[in-house]
Amino acid sequence: MATIEPQPPESALDARVEDYLEDKLQSAADLDALDALLDTVDLQRTQLEAQLDAAVRELDLARRTTDDRHGLIQERIAEFRALQADIDERVRATAASDAPAEAIARLQWPMQKRKAVELARKYLVLLQDVERLRGEATVHLPGSPKAALEPYAQLKELALKLRGLPGSEELHLVSHVEAVTEKLWAEMKKIMSDELEAVLKKRGWPRVDPQSEMDDEWIVCVEKLVDIQMPEIIHSPEVVPLLPVDVMAHIFVAEFRFHFLSDKPTSKPQSMGSHCFPWFLSIIERWEDFFRDNLAPVLAAKFHDTPVAEKTVYADPVCALITSMLMVMREKVHAVAQEAVGNTPFLSTFIGQLINLDDTIRSRFSYDGGDAENGWSGLTTEVLAVHFEVWFEAERKFALERFETILEAPDARKIDYDYAVAGKMKPTFAAVRVADLLRTITTKYKRLRSLKHKVRFLTRIQLDILDGYHERLKGSLEAYQSMTSALGRTLHGTTKEQLAALEGLGALETLCKVIGSSDHIVNALTEWGDEEFFTELWDELQTASGSGNSSELDGEQDITSSSGHNGAIFDETIAAYSSRRKAAEEILVSTLADAQSKAFRAYTQRPQWTTIGDADTLDPSQLSITAELDLPLSKLKESFDFLHRALSGASYRRVWHGALDKLQDLLWNGVLMKHQFTTLGAVQFAHDGQALAAVIERHLPGGSSALEELREAMELLRLPITLPDEMSSGGGVTLGQASERAFTDNDAARALLEEMQLHSLTPANARQVLQRRVENNENTGW
């Protein structure tokens, strides 16, 4: 829009005119163009006036337009306010009236009917689509199975989509579409299967040579069936039998039903191990090469670059045949298991046979059931998922009854001296049989797949038996201690027969039974703990315990809680039996010491050690052992002979070293430190010591070293008063010289002992020994 600028002041205008004229009229010649200049000025003035008039007109028009627009807005505002007031009035009237509710009620039924009609229309359209897809699928069979899969896939997708809608459980349409889909799939498989069955009938299957080859028509039919089943195989979470193999195995399934699922004698449950399982394996073995040679390339090509290419249940024709045959075998097995529940001895036998069948299928045909990582769980796992408790209780009852029978057998408490060669531990018959029973129980469950089931056998049968036998051995020791102590006999009472059984070697035999039995169980458990099965079981238990996955054990006892990661499965039990063996050995040492004390009683009380005689000229070889020593040596020989037969070399040496230590204490305190000795008495005592050492060495080579301190004491005690002429210049030591040096000081005493090569005696002991000589107590001047 043009605007009229304010006029400049007159002085400013004159100055501008003056400047303009000076610019145009700079010379006299410029006056000649004055008329043209005036005309130009008039023209410019006229143009400026025209522009000014146009600007005035535009300004007026704009003012009128603004006024008109403002008036229109005011009118609209007034209309809106009137309309709002009218609406408010109507709302108030409507709120106070029942007319809308009545109108809604009148329209509700027509609307529902309209929805029902619309829903029916959609139903009909959907049903038409279902029938159309079904027809499109069947029209392509059997010529083009891949083309038939497209409409079938659409129909399957439709069924899955309908089933996923909220409230689909109550809709008949959903069930109808699913039924049509399943029926179509069955029809498609039947059409294709019938084609293969016709080919098989033409070829006389299975009366064909297992070494022959399939012809092209046969192979083509197999490929078509694989093509039509491919989507199901790829998308199914479970293993599905291959259709072509199913068709070919149909005759074998019919034969199986004829023999084993009918009223034939071979259908009896007791024939499972002798007829049914061998027949099943023979069929697989007979056709193994035929299936692999003819179908392996076909299946490898079909499943190449698919998610199931590595699954042997599809890629290996023999595994596919096993999958097809297992369906009817599973039916038979579950039927027999259900019948065997009422006959637990047969159930135990049947489970063992079934485990053997599973292992044979796994090992001979490399069948993994579609699970390459964990392997095939087997028919046994399926049966035990239902009947494990019945089978377990039967096995536990039998095992515990057998355990009680072993313990109550007449020869259970007898030592089996023929079990091992000399120098090896001899267990009781009961210990050997208990170990055999435990080993048999292990064979019952070592091939089970469930960790829970294996732990149940271990903890509630094997460990219960081990605990029971441990308590039996513990009770034997406690009973022995009770009968051999005065307090125990007073509190519990003891019969004459029980005391008679402990006379002579009876006490040693009783203790050797506990030692041998405990040692046998310890060795057996140690050996088992190193076996692959128990090592793997321990690792599984450690893993389940460490991960906190209680579902694997399902409430079973966790036997890893008290053992470290480097432990073994029987550590606690081995420790308990080892403790029992150690306790029995300690009691055996005490028993030997008590027996020695009784046997040596007369010898320790012998007063003839002060007999006077010419000991310097006496030949020691002419001496005989003391009469009171005959009985102790005889008893010692008997104990040596018996323990050598019953104990292992290590236990034998361990026990006798302990017993001989106590014997040395007995002779030291009961003879050497109790009596006085003349030279002849000392020589006789030393001769007795040599006889005792000879007996020990004959039965326990190197065992006399346990009496080394006593032997050295005898050497010191038997020193002569005077040296013979032939020894006077040989550096010998007399009793007087030794006594003088021993009582001088400890250094002199140690030098004396070193000179005499007596390394076990101390200076104090040497002085005590020398004081036992009568000559030293008579204050004889040396």
TrEMBL record:
Q: InterPro entries of this UniProt entry?
A: EXOC6PINT-1/Sec15/Tip20_C_dom2, RINT1_Tip20
Gene3D superfamilies the UniProt entry points to: Dsl1p vesicle tethering complex, Tip20p subunit, domain D (1.20.58.670)
Q: Which PROSITE patterns match?
A: RINT1_TIP20 (PS51386)
- GO CC terms: Dsl1/NZR complex
Coiled coil start-end: 31-65
Q: Where is this region: Disordered?
A: 545-565
Going by the entry's taxonomy, the superkingdom of the source organism is recorded as Eukaryota
- Keyword field contains rRNA processing: no
Any one Gene Ontology BP term: endoplasmic reticulum to Golgi vesicle-mediated transport
Keyword Coiled coil tagged: yes
Q: What is this protein called?
A: RAD50-interacting protein 1
Sorted alphabetically, which keywords does the UniProt record give?
Coiled coil
